[in-house]
């Protein structure tokens, strides 16, 4: 799309949009209802992270997503419709919310190009309810954004979701649309190098591990006794690291650092519209569905990367041949295949491999399946979350024990975060390698899977290693 320099030209070049909105308003007048007009346009290439930095306001919800492996990044700002819900039926209520919104949308410019349709952005907490009332995110949040800009394979798409009713002034909302396009396109010359304009001096932190090392190791020892007595076979215990900075954290810089440090992870940021952001670089996909083809990851079993190629190879071989790590990994594979089968899917287990990140490596087995048209993506999310990779086995008992051992609210940590589009495509990751940012404060999260044979000292070393992924980005 060529951006013109004044509104009259915009109306000339986009007469169809004007007539489309007029037609929507006429139907609203005749039927006395309100509709959401979803306008999709191709625009000049722009970095969605720059848009997040320049356009997102503290009082607005927002969502940022970048997957360099898929050559895609998305920013969604403000909500035209939003649901916050908790309880056992939260996934069902979220599915209904999405379907109700879709039935109320009238589209313009949708085509077969990816991200030409509106997306619904989701943050489901680890637990169905928050026990700590001051935790800043709802147990589940789903929203349809006012503005969505996505880049896929170097093509950029804007989706504007506009409320239209009998009283809507079409010229006014066109002016709003045009002004937004002008602002977005004025940022097209910015790039990720914009991050270099921010202060890169060494940031000063005060650090305090709330659950101190000895307490964490004691929790591991207690869990091992429960495993030995066959109460459960695995539990994932997490710890937090609270830090305070001498200055307010720069969200843009932190996310830019994450995408440079972890190009093979999914970089994400969710804002609650109250000034807090949950960010991270997740290596773990929960589910991806594209044209009814699902792929999910069994990711469990860890080892550090080596400082030399020889050490790295030796660590990888130890991981691949570790009975303890392979047992932990097999628990996840078995769980995922069983849960998918309960929905009538026929999961296929692909060849196992290593998932090697900058400072850690995991045992990784992709699993794929075809999704019937009558199975909504959120039904699958509900069935899979939480996997043994972030909770344990037996799942319900492990979750109850997690709340007994952990004195903090997990919230969005290790929880399903992602999007669903109008055609049932979706991407959800597990919110690990993550941090809650609130002004000059940050809370970092990391966890480790405890099974028979776990060593408390090694499990502590593992979560300390995982903390580093976020610490480097925040510095």
From TrEMBL:
What's a single GO MF annotation on this record?
Answer: isochorismate synthase activity
EC category: isomerase
Q: Which residues form the Chorismate-utilising enzyme C-terminal domain?
A: 213-466
Q: Which InterPro entries match?
A: ADC_synthase, Chorismate_C, IsoChor_synthase
Q: Which Pfam families does the UniProt entry name for this protein? A: Chorismate_bind
Its Enzyme Commission number? 5.4.4.2
Instruction: Provide the reaction this enzyme catalyses.
Output: chorismate = isochorismate
Keywords per UniProt:
Isomerase
Gene3D superfamilies noted in UniProt = Anthranilate synthase (3.60.120.10)
- Homology family: Belongs to the isochorismate synthase family.
Q: Which NCBIfam families match?
A: isochor_syn
Q: What is this protein called?
A: isochorismate synthase
